[in-house]
Fold each of these.
Amino acid sequence: QVHVVESGGGLVQAGGSLRLSCRTSTHPLRWYDMAWFRQAPGKEREFVAAISRSGSNSAYTASVKGRFTISRDNAKNMMYLQMNGLKFEDTAVYYCAAAYKTGESTLSAVTSYDFWGQGTQVAVSS
């Protein structure tokens, strides 16, 4: 079982930027398709972005396209989410998730991921 840990959350003003990081331990990051999800108070966990194990393919939910960038460095066992132009509605707990395998039609589903981090809080003030 892989251990997944997020970091980098915090409080930022609207229009600001944050970079979230996710690292894996016990097993190499390169074994997994990876994603970021988020969950706001009173709402269901939702897909934000995903990246293939090689890093050659990525996908985003419509509301963050053009503002967020997902990337990974397999040599460092690290994945990142660069968030620019943050909006109040981006406020949520952000989770890093790892999957043995996802497909184009399943990469945005919570149930497609096998391992989850504890989450990191992102708060955007308006």
Note: The mean pLDDT is 95.
Amino acid sequence: QVQLVESGGGLVQAGGSLTLSCEASGIIFSIRRMAWYRQAPGKQRELVAVVTRGGSANGDNITDYADSVKGRFTISRDNAKNMVYLRMNSLKAEDTAVYFCNADVALRDARNWFRYWGQGTQVTVSS
């Protein structure tokens, strides 16, 4: 019903930058929360960044980041295109992981929400 497709991963040297993109397609009424997670070999999947649509008191999006990426990564979204982005600067070797996006999607109305995941994109940072 809903597919999430990530792109933009690759190999980069430490200190470099990458921008990941994730597009949601299918039967979509609304997308509330969009997030990026990552999973390094032998480690659990962890939340990297999240953006919630209209989550603030004045209707602006709310963003939040893992402490390890604050000041280096920026999450943003394009609601018209159902896309979420992750701009990653000052990359470190420890950022090496498979990066997954997910989204909380209402399919036909706002009564029922479902969480979908993408297949992941590999980010490798060489030191």
Note: The chain has no helices and eleven strands.
